[in-house]
Write a structure and sequence with these properties.
The complex is a heterodimer. Chain A is mostly beta strands. Chain A is built from no helices and eleven strands. In chain A, the strands form two sheets. In chain A, strands 2, 4, 5, 9, 10 and 11 form a six-stranded mixed β-sheet that branches. Chain A is globular, with a radius of gyration of 15 Å. By secondary structure, chain B is mainly β. Chain B contains no helices and eleven strands. Chain B starts with a strand and ends with a strand. The model of chain B has no long low-confidence stretch (mean pLDDT about 90). Classes of the chains: A mainly beta, B mainly beta. Chains A and B meet through strand 4, strand 5 and strand 10 of A and strand 4 and strand 5 of B.
Chain lengths: ~120, ~110
Amino acid sequence: AQSVTQLGSHVSVSEGALVLLRCNYSSSVPPYLFWYVQYPNQGLQLLLKYTTGATLVKGINGFEAEFKKSETSFHLTKPSAHMSDAAEYFCAVSDDGRFNSGGSNYKLTFGKGTLLTVNP
Amino acid sequence: AAGVIQSPRHLIKEKRETATLKCYPIPRHDTVYWYQQGPGQDPQFLISFYEKMQSDKGSIPDRFSAQQFSDYHSELNMSSLELGDSALYFCASNPPGARVETQYFGPGTRLLVL
């Protein structure tokens, strides 16, 4: 079974400071890894994803994440926080749940989320 | 670009009532997922459909049922509602083809059970 652990349910940074949100995963197969952002009373927006290839992945809004297989980690970073980055961030994992019929089943297992607050 | 549509966006029900949530995937997407996000919780996978057949099942209560129709839209039917069913219900869809692993999420339906 897959699982995701996000260290720190709440992270607070100053505007302009480095953002680091931690995510560790457990998966029996090579995982697909995702970071989603959720603004208050809104849906889930994909920030970035890792499937295969380059382990450093760049996403929207200046975020990036590095897949480290040896550490089973996929931490999210941003060099300089902006007030608009304040939101809930979810790390998620899925596997290649392909059926023989050719369909797809990439159900996501989410972490508990990290609330990022940005102080002026 | 077209997105996943969910209706209604907000729903208020009394205990023991029933509710039906609808999801319209992005055109030509053949796989639909349902997730439930309780207050302050992470989204939990409920159920998924591929080509109108149930493809996987998660922590979906027996009081809930779902199906995918010939036009690929999906409906989540919830009966004997309980206070604990109050949550944000997300639908997501996948396009067909190889190596498509990214789910496109709808805005969610917020259900409040009183």
